[in-house]
Structures are given as structure tokens and as C-alpha cells.
């Protein structure tokens, strides 16, 4: 066990020397961090304040773009109510033009159909007359040819026109009415409405030029105010006071560190000597035990013990002698190191680690009987402010800013000076004074309204389209001319050869020619005009209702512009102003958070304090010192039993100079021999 204690002593002695050698590097590192902490603070404050330029640049950009931002916002608010009406009027203007084209197309095609029908009637009459002339042939009076001729003559009534296109009324009057409507360019009037409505952003920009200039001036003055606030913040003043302490501390450390290292070398040498003395004692005891045990002979008499056994006894007695000589020195060293190390551990290290040391320092009127809180008295010269060492250490440990840690709001309340209402009052007032006058928007003038009403009364919705559709849906002829020609040709084949047969076949061919040249084109034209009439009917269906709905929507939109545009302008202006002011609200809030929580984050202070107390004092010095007295004390405690055992064992290991033999008879007992050996120590 003594050996373990001696090892502890050696380790502690060497460890303390090693840690002392690290002191310079530790001190330089912490002082460098503190200097960086102090010197970097002004740059941090300047950076935070310089970001106002970025905020102002963004605000100026929005102010320069008031046309799309504010004007566009007003325009977008009104668009859902206005644009659909203008789109409907524009579509109606296109419908008027398309209706005129459709009427002209139908009317012209109808005239062509009437002419084609007349030509078809003429052709059919000619064919019919030719067939009748052929049937006047004498052969038609001879049976059975007469029967065939009579059948042909009776079927000639089918060669007639099947339509009454000539009775369909002309559309000239409706076309004239549409032409009168088109004398007014409704599309141009609608485009004027679009232009008037789309000019709102431009009107907003033109009417706010002076106010925007005033707002920019206010923002420039706000930048000057913020810069002045940055200069008034007492962070740098407080930190400047600490710079002197750091310089003095650094000078003191550099001046005394060499002395500390020199004295530590003496301490290390003394500790090494103590450990070597203990080691020497243990070596004597171990050699005595080893030699005595190896050379011991139970059958030999004390005067006949061997040399090795005798040497072991001598080693044990030498160890006892050395122990007696230096034991008091070891005990004194153990007591001194125990008193110093133990008390420092209990009075400084442990209270520092659990925070009780700060609670003691924060005890009111302890450090200065006239000050309740010593730290606030030092910082603010006002000892009534609740500023404690424990709170400052805890905040620095969490790397909070020096403003929050030292409660500098008691010296300069940045929250009051960075209040947006204080700085943005004039700006808000300027935005409220935005006076945008856009009440003169006319979506469609009186001429456009009259044009729509004239179109609704043009009569195209009163045309009897069903009559036209009915006629266009008929076949051009009462009978299929191809079938009639085939039947005529078949009947002619039953006639004997002659002029009658040939004449009828020629007429059948003529009928086919009429079908190909007149009936088929007529059918195609009738089918085309049928679709045109259907489309025209669809366009004109409910025309008066459509126009009435458009005019109603137009009146509603125009009334909306007159009654709601002011509230829309106020709403969008407020939103626009709040956006601009919001940039500075966020900036000032960021400045406040940065200064109170981030700038001059004081963790290097807590780290330096931890390095001085927890690392240097406790870990570097007190812990090795405690380990040293514990090891040496442990070894010293076992000296007493070691001495006793060494003396007892030496009697059995050492060689004696003589032996004493005597008889002792007591109480009638038989006498026995007892050997006494003597030897000078």
C-alpha cells in the first residue's frame, strides 16, 4: 500500500510540474480571446448599423417601383369587377361584325340560290317539253307502246322544283340596320375603356412623386438617427474599462510567470526528494524481507544464522532508522499540503463548480458594507441594481451579449430608442397622406351604350329562322332525277327501235346532266347556308337579354369604381406603407436582438475565469497537490506498522553474538532451557 502511495506522489509531483509548464500557453490563449472579444465589438456594432443601407436600398427600390406595387395593387383589386365587363363588350363588338358578315353571306347566298332554282326550273321545263314532244310520236298510239308512253307522260309532273326560295324574305333591312350600328366603332370605344382602366398604375406614380420624395428624405434622417444611437450605446465604454485590466493582468502574468516556474522547479525537486526518501525506505524494507526470507533457516541457532538472513535483518533495521529520521519531515509536509489543498478544494474549487462561491460574493454588503450589490456598484455606480456575479457568469457561459449580461438597459435603454413608432411616425403620416385621384375612369361612353342598344334593336333576333331552315332542309326537286332518268331509260328499252326510243334515251341523259350540273351544286349551297343560318340563329338568340345584361354589368362596374375606389386606394396604400415600414421594423428588431444578445458575446470572459479558477488553480495546482498529500500521507501512515513489523522480523533474521541459557522453575514445574541471544544494534 505504501508503494501505491509513493506512486501517487511521483505522479502528482510530475503532473503539477507539467501543468505549470502549460500555464503560459493557457494564459496567452485566454488573453488572446479576450482581446479579440474586446477589439471585435466595435466592428460588430458598425456592421449591424451598416446594414441599414441594405434596408434603405430595398425600401427605395419599392418606392421607385410604386407604379407596379401600389398602382398595380389597386389595379388588381379592381380588375375582377371591371375586366369581365370590358371583355364582354369587346366580344359583343366582334359579334356585331361577325353578325354582319353572316347576314351578308346568307343574303348573297340566298339570292344565288333563287337564281339557281330559277335556272333549274327552266331546265326541268325544257326537259319536260322535250319528253312531251317525243311522246307525240305516232308509235305512242299503237298498243302496247301506248301504255308505256302514257306511263311516261303521267310521271312528267314530278319534274318540278321542290322549294319556294323565291318566297323567302330578303335580309337587306337587317343588314342596313347592322351597317348603321357599325358606323360607330365600338371596338375603339372599348379600347378606350381598357386604356383608361390600365392607366391607373401610371396615374398613381404621377400623383405620388412629391410624397415619395418626402418619404425618402425621412428614411435618410432615420439612418442618421440610428447611427447616433449606435454611438450612444455604452457597450464600448464598458469594455474599454476592461481593456486596462487585461493589459495589467497580461503584464503581471508575464512578469511573474518566470518566477512561478522557477519556484515550481524547487518544489518539484523537493517533492522528488520526499518521494525518493519514501522509495528508499520501501527499498530497505523490501530488501530486508527478500534477503531475510530467502536466508532464513529454522534449525539454525541465532548465533549460527546465515549471512543472507543477517543482511535482511540489517536492511530492515536500516529502514527503521531512516523512517525515524525523516518521518517527522514527511508528516509536516503532508499536514501543510493537506491544509492548503484540502481547504482550497472545499473553499474555492467545489463552491466555484456548484455556484455557491458566486452566491457568497453576491451576498449584500459583503464586499462593500455600503453597497448592496457590489458588481452593479462597480459597473453603474448604483449598488441597488440587481446585478450579481452568478447571473453575469451564467449569462457569459451561455454566450449572451454584454448588453444583456451587464443589464446595460439601466444605463441606456435601447428598446425605447429603437421603437419603430418613434422613428417611423413621419413616414406613416406621409403614407396616410397619399392622395391618389382616379375617379375619372369611364369604361364606355354614351355613344358606346347607344351602339349596343341599336344592335339589340336591329331586328336580327326577330328573323323567322325556322322558315329559312325549313326551305334549306328540302330537296331541290320533287323526285330524284337520277332515279327518274334510270326509270325513263328502262321504259325506253322496252320500246321498239326507232326515233321514239332514241329520243327518250337522250332525254334521260339530259336529266342526268341537269342533276350533275345544277341539282348537286344547289344541294351543296343549301347545306352550307343551312349551317350559316343555324349559326346566325344561335348568335341572335336572346340578343336583347345579352345586351341588357352587359349594360347592367357595365353600370355595376362603373358604380363600383365610383363608390369603392377610394376605399381600395386607402387599403392598398396602407398595405404598401406597412410593407415599407415593415422593412425597418424588422431591421430595428434585428438591431435590438443583435446588440442585446449577440454583439460582444461574453463567453471568452467565462472561459477565462474558468481557466483561471477551474483549470489553473484547481486542475493544475490543487488536484495534483491533493493527490500528492494523499499519496505521501498514505505511505507515511503505513510507516508505523512497517517499523513494528521490521523490528519484530529483524530479531529472527539477524545473527546474534552470544546465547544465554538459564533454568527457571516456577510453581513446581520442571525447569526448561531458554536461550537468550544478545547483539549490539
From TrEMBL:
Domain of life: Eukaryota
One Gene Ontology term of the molecular function aspect: cholesterol binding
GO annotation terms (biological process): camera-type eye photoreceptor cell differentiation; photoreceptor cell maintenance
Residue intervals passing through the bilayer: 268-292, 313-340, 627-647
Pfam families from the UniProt entry: Prominin
Principal cellular location given in the protein's record: membrane
Family: Belongs to the prominin family.
Protein name per Swiss-Prot or TrEMBL: Prominin-1 isoform X5
Amino acid at each position: 500500500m505504501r508503494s501505491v502511495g509513493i506512486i501517487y506522489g511521483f505522479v502528482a509531483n510530475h503532473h503539477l510540474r507539467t501543468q505549470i509548464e502549460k500555464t503560459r500557453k493557457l494564459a496567452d490563449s485566454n488573453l488572446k480571446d479576450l482581446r479579440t472579444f474586446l477589439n471585435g465589438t466595435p466592428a460588430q456594432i458598425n456592421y449591424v448599423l451598416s446594414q441599414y443601407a441594405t434596408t434603405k436600398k430595398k425600401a427605395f427600390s419599392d418606392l421607385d417601383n410604386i407604379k407596379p406595387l401600389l398602382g398595380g395593387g389597386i389595379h388588381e383589386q379592381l380588375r375582377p369587377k371591371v375586366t369581365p365587363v370590358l371583355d364582354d363588350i369587346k366580344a359583343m363588338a366582334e359579334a356585331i361584325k361577325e353578325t354582319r358578315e353572316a347576314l351578308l353571306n346568307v343574303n348573297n347566298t340566298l339570292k344565288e340560290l333563287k337564281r339557281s332554282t330559277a335556272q333549274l326550273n327552266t331546265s326541268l321545263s325544257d326537259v319536260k317539253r322535250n319528253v312531251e314532244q317525243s311522246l307525240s310520236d305516232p308509235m305512242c298510239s299503237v298498243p302496247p307502246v301506248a301504255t308505256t308512253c302514257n306511263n311516261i307522260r303521267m310521271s312528267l309532273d314530278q319534274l318540278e322544283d321542290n322549294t319556294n326560295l323565291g318566297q323567302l324574305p330578303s335580309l337587306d333591312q337587317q343588314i342596313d340596320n347592322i351597317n348603321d350600328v357599325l358606323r360607330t366603332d365600338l371596338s375603339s370605344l372599348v379600347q378606350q375603356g381598357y386604356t383608361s382602366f390600365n392607366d391607373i398604375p401610371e396615374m398613381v406614380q404621377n400623383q405620388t412623386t412629391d410624397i415619395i420624395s418626402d418619404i425618402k428624405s425621412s428614411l435618410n434622417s432615420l439612418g442618421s438617427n440610428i447611427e447616433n444611437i449606435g454611438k450612444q450605446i455604452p457597450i464600448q465604454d464598458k469594455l474599454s474599462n476592461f481593456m486596462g485590466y487585461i493589459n495589467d493582468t497580461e503584464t503581471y502574468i508575464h512578469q511573474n510567470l518566470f518566477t512561478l516556474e522557477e519556484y515550481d522547479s524547487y518544489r518539484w525537486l523537493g517533492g522528488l526528494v520526499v518521494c525518493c526518501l519514501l522509495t528508499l525506505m520501501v527499498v530497505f524494507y523490501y530488501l530486508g524481507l527478500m534477503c531475510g526470507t530467502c536466508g532464513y533457516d529454522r534449525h539454525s541457532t541465532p548465533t549460527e544464522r546465515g549471512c543472507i538472513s543477517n543482511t535482511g535483518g540489517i536492511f530492515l533495521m536500516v529502514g527503521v532508522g531512516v523512517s525515524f529520521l525523516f518521518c517527522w519531515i514527511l508528516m509536516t509536509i503532508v499536514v501543510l499540503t493537506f491544509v492548503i489543498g484540502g481547504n482550497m478544494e472545499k473553499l474555492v474549487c467545489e463552491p466555484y463548480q456548484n455556484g455557491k462561491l458566486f452566491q457568497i460574493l453576491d451576498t449584500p454588503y459583503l464586499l462593500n458594507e455600503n453597497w448592496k450589490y457590489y458588481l452593479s456598484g462597480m459597473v453603474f455606480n448604483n449598488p441597488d441594481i440587481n446585478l450579481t456575479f452568478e447571473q453575469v457568469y451564467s449569462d457569459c457561459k451561455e454566450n449572451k451579449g454584454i448588453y444583456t449580461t451587464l443589464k446595460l438597459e439601466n444605463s441606456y435603454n435601447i428598446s425605447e430608442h429603437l421603437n419603430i413608432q418613434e422613428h417611423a411616425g413621419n413616414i406613416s403620416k406621409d403614407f396616410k397622406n397619399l392622395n391618389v385621384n382616379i375617379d375619372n375612369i369611364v369604361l364606355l361612353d354614351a355613344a358606346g351604350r347607344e351602339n349596343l342598344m341599336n344592335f339589340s334593336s336591329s331586328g336580327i333576333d326577330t328573323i323567322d329562322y325556322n322558315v329559312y331552315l325549313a326551305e334549306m332542309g328540302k330537296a331541290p326537286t320533287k323526285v330524284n332525277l337520277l332515279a327518274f332518268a334510270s326509270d325513263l331509260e328502262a321504259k325506253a328499252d322496252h320500246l321498239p327501235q326507232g326515233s321514239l326510243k332514241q329520243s327518250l334515251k337522250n332525254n334521260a341523259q339530259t336529266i342526268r346532266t341537269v342533276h350533275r350540273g345544277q341539282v348537286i351544286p344547289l344541294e351543296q349551297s343549301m347545306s352550307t347556308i343551312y349551317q350559316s343560318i343555324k349559326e346566325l340563329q344561335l348568335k341572335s338568340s336572346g340578343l336583347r337579354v345579352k345586351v341588357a345584361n352587359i349594360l347592367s354589368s357595365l353600370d355595376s362596374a362603373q358604380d363600383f369604381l365610383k363608390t369603392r375606389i377610394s376605399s381600395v386606394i386607402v387599403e392598398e396604400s396602407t398595405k404598401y406603407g406597412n410593407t415599407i415600414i415593415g422593412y425597418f421594423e424588422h431591421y430595428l428588431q434585428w438591431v435590438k436582438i443583435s446588440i442585446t444578445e449577440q454583439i460582444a458575446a461574453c463567453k471568452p470572459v467565462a472561459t477565462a475565469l474558468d481557466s483561471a479558477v477551474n483549470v489553473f488553480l484547481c486542475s493544475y495546482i490543487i488536484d495534483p497537490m491533493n493527490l500528492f498529500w494523499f499519496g505521501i500521507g498514505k505511505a507515511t501512515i503505513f510507516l508505523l506498522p512497517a517499523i513494528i513489523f521490521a523490528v519484530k522480523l529483524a530479531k529472527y533474521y539477524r545473527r546474534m553474538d552470544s546465547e544465554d541459557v538459564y533454568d527457571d522453575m516456577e510453581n513446581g514445574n520442571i525447569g526448561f532451557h531458554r536461550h537468550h541471544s544478545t547483539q549490539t544494534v
